[in-house]
Amino acid sequence: MLKYLSAADRHHAAPAAWLSSYFLFSFADYFDRDNMHFGPLRVFNDDNVAAQSGFPQHPHSEMEIVTLVLEGEITHQDTMGNNTTIKAGEVQRMTAGTGLAHSEFNRQDKPLHLYQLWFIPSQRGLAPSYEQKDLDFTTTNKNELVPLVTGQKVLEDVVYMNSNSTVYWSNLEEGEDIEFKTFPIRLTFIYVKEGVIFVNGTELGPNDQARMTDEDVVQIRAAKDSQFILIDLPATEANY
């Protein structure tokens, strides 16, 4: 079964002049008891941060936090001692675990565009940790699903997280097809950055979502050159 959500179904938040954010799940001032999470995917925020602006230090705990930088770059500092810059095409993962604090700033003179995803971890009480990797995912590996972050150890050259989930990215050219094999005990989440794709026959445009349950195969065809994220997730809490 495929549930389609349009770009207009997202919640738009602009809590400061420098931030424009779209929440795909309940977050901050947006609460919908029917849209709290999809499997262990608890937060998916599509953020645009103005130049020379950002998030001052703030705390987190008991979440796996994944940041994908699409355009621009972000400067990150945290209480673990990390002081890094994450550029477009790079992936960052923080295990908040028992607790940490961090800040995120756009120190550049151009806007920053990023996706930030939070996953409910497979276990609580983990020690905070950090990983960052340049996978150049926005421009390379056309016409395939490229794994970026995973808790499934069979995949290599990816960022590891403590969740039985995998985040894929695709740069799919017009007329090309991808088949993703799944299981009824898994969930599949798709969010389109740009272009037009058909997912099991349903059309998705920019910023549209598909949330899929009880499927064996996900067929994806690009009607235009497209970029999208696909997340493979466990369906039951016991498998998070």
Task: State the main characteristics.
globular, seven-stranded mixed sheet, mainly beta
Explain this structure to me?
0% of the residues lie in helices and 55% in strands. It has 240 residues and is mainly beta. The strands form 4 sheets. A 7-stranded mixed beta sheet has the order 1-20-17-22-15-13-14, with no helix packed on it. The radius of gyration is 17 Å and the shape is globular. The chain starts with a strand and ends in a 6-residue tail after the last strand. The mean pLDDT is 97. Pfam families: Pirin, Pirin_C_2.
Short structural description:
By secondary structure, the protein is mainly beta. Helix content is 0%, strand content 55%. The mean pLDDT is 97.
Spans where pLDDT lies below 50 across 5 or more residues: none
Structural class, by secondary structure, is mainly beta
Rounded to the nearest angstrom, the radius of gyration is: 17 Å
Distance between the termini: 21 Å
Order of helices and strands: EEEEEEEEEEEEEEEEEEEEEE
* Strand neighbour order, sheet with most strands: 1-20-17-22-15-13-14
Q: How many distinct helices?
A: 0
Taken as a percent bin, the fraction of beta residues is: over 45%
* Number of beta-strand segments: 22
Coarse shape: globular
Mean pLDDT: 97
Main pleated-sheet profile: 7 strands, mixed
Helix content: under 10%
Organism: Hymenobacter frigidus
Domain Pirin N-terminal: 15-118
Domain Quercetin 2,3-dioxygenase C-terminal cupin: 156-233
Protein name: Quercetin 2,3-dioxygenase
